[in-house]
């Protein structure tokens, strides 16, 4: 096995993403020691039963004391509270990173609490499922997926390099971009699609209630795919929308305009407009499949290579 990339890795939060990191780090020997920290003793006990770390604690300061690399795997809304707690206990020279689905807000919450000797390199693996908790993780989650790294200007290049090498050793391809660009891209490729799924499932459930008819019972493929997305973690997604507000609102405005155009096409019987759009979107899906980024059948987000975000305008 190659030399570990870091001596001590501290994982703050051990849900789907934290436990997937722990599993791949153990399998690939990427750290000599893994310290696992989480707030709830029950979750910590489960992480220990699963053998995800070498040391376990509910105390964030104790977790980071000897760590060379600290990765926060917590809901984005908890970032400030955790940074405030761990900031003074970090080892000088340590690299701090995260996996949050929004980037500008995480940087604004965390950076003020880190001493000058700490290198902060935020990151976001574009890989996940609708499941959460330490049992949900798996070592191949990041294989052939993107991990976007968003270092603030002036970040130490060796620290950026360490975080990139870490994610590449976990199986991901890495790309550096500004946090603002990241937040705009993810708003349309991930955040708005989740909002649409939550909304359509909510509307169908409401319709079922008011009409006292069995809407859900007769749901077929398309709707069921939405219910998978709409089963995603409520805390995580509440935080995503509150912490990527401007970009999500901007993308929702564009989405609503395009939806109105479709509504008008239906109202006025403009079959050509409908046919043209559906032809274009079918070609996009076929392009993704031909590029090897997705399989034909839904596979609950586990296909290696799926989920790489497009640049806006691509
Ligand atoms: N689930 C996905 O598909 C996915 C994909 C990529 C990135 N992310 C991001 O990864 C992060 C973690 O998501 P997850 O899916 O692993 O969630 P999860 O619910 O499975 O795990 C979250 C972990 O954070 C801990 N936690 C919650 N609140 C905390 C607090 N205030 N202080 C300390 N610990 C706290 C929980 O105990 C748990 O261990 C989120 O920021 C999310 O946006 C998620
Ligand atoms: O496949 C899924 O279940 C996901 O929702 C994963 C997904 C995504 O939207 O692609 C969700 C949020 C993350 O920040 C990154 C990945």
CATH level 1 class label of the largest domain = Alpha Beta
Q: What bound compounds does this protein have?
A: nicotinamide-adenine-dinucleotide, prephenic acid
- Tally of individual domains: 2
CATH topology of the largest domain: Rossmann fold
The CATH architecture of the largest domain can be named as: 3-Layer(aba) Sandwich
Succession of helices and strands: EHEHEHEHEHEEEHEHHHHH
If strands are numbered along the chain, what order do they take across the biggest sheet?
Answer: 3-2-1-4-5-6
How many DSSP E strands? Answer: 9
- Profile the largest sheet: 6 strands, parallel
What is the CA-atom radius of gyration, in angstroms?
21 Å
CATH superfamily of the largest domain: NAD(P)-binding Rossmann-like Domain
Helix- and strand-based class?
alpha/beta
Basic shape: globular
| Helical fraction | 40-55%
Residue-averaged pLDDT: 92
Total DSSP helices: 11
The span between the termini is 40 Å
Enzyme class: oxidoreductase
InterPro entries: 6-PGluconate_DH-like_C_sf, NAD(P)-bd_dom_sf, PDH_C, PDH_N, Preph/Arog_dehydrog, Prephen_DH
Protein name: prephenate dehydrogenase
EC number: 1.3.1.12
Report on this model:
This protein has a six-stranded parallel beta sheet. It starts with 5 loop residues before the first strand and ends in a 24-residue tail after the last helix. The chain is globular and about 65 Å long. It is an alpha/beta fold. α7 crosses α8 and α7 packs across α10. 48% of the residues lie in helices and 12% in strands. It has helices spanning 16-28, 41-49, 60-64, 79-86, 104-110, 157-169, 179-211, 221-229, 234-243, 245-267, 271-290; strands at residues 6-12, 31-37, 55-57, 69-72, 95-98, 119-120, 123-125, 146-149, 173-176. The protein folds into two domains: 6-177, NAD(P)-binding Rossmann-like Domain (Rossmann fold, 3-Layer(aba) Sandwich); 181-290, 6-phosphogluconate dehydrogenase C-terminal like domain (6-phosphogluconate dehydrogenase C-terminal fold), CATH 1.10.3660.10. The site of nicotinamide-adenine-dinucleotide has 29 residues, from α1, α4, β7 and α9.
């Amino acid at each position: 096995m190659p030399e570990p990339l870091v001596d001590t890795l501290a994982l703050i939060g051990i849900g789907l993403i934290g436990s997937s990191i722990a599993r791949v780090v153990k399998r690939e020997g990427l750290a000599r020691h893994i310290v696992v920290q989480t707030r709830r003793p029950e979750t910590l006990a489960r992480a220990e039963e699963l053998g995800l770390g070498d040391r376990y604690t509910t105390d964030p300061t104790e977790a980071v004391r000897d760590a060379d690399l600290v990765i926060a795997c917590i809901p984005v809304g908890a970032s400030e509270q955790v940074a405030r707690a761990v900031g003074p206990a970090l080892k000088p020279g340590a690299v701090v990173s995260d996996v949050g689905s929004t980037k500008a807000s995480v940087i604004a919450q965390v950076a003020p609490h880190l001493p000058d000797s700490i290198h902060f390199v935020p990151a976001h693996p574009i890989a996940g499922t609708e499941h959460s908790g330490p049992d949900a993780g798996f070592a191949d989650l990041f294989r052939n997926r993107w991990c976007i790294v968003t270092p603030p200007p002036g970040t130490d290049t060796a620290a950026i390099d360490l975080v990139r090498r870490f994610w590449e050793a976990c199986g991901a391809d890495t790309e550096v971009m500004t946090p603002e660009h990241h937040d705009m891209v993810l708003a349309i490729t991930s955040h708005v699609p989740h909002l649409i799924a939550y909304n359509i499932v909510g509307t169908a459930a409401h319709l079922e209630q008011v009409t006292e008819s069995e809407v859900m019972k007769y749901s077929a493929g398309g709707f069921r795919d939405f219910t998978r997305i709409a089963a995603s973690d409520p805390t995580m997604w509440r935080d995503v929308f509150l912490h990527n507000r401007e970009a999500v609102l901007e993308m929702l405005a564009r989405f609503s305009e395009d939806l109105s155009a479709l509504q008008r096409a239906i109202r006025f019987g403009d079959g050509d407009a409908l046919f043209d759009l559906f032809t274009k979107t079918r070609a996009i899906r076929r392009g993704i499949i031909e590029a090897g980024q997705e399989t034909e059948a839904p596979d609950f987000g586990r296909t290696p290579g799926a989920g790489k975000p497009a640049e806006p305008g691509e």
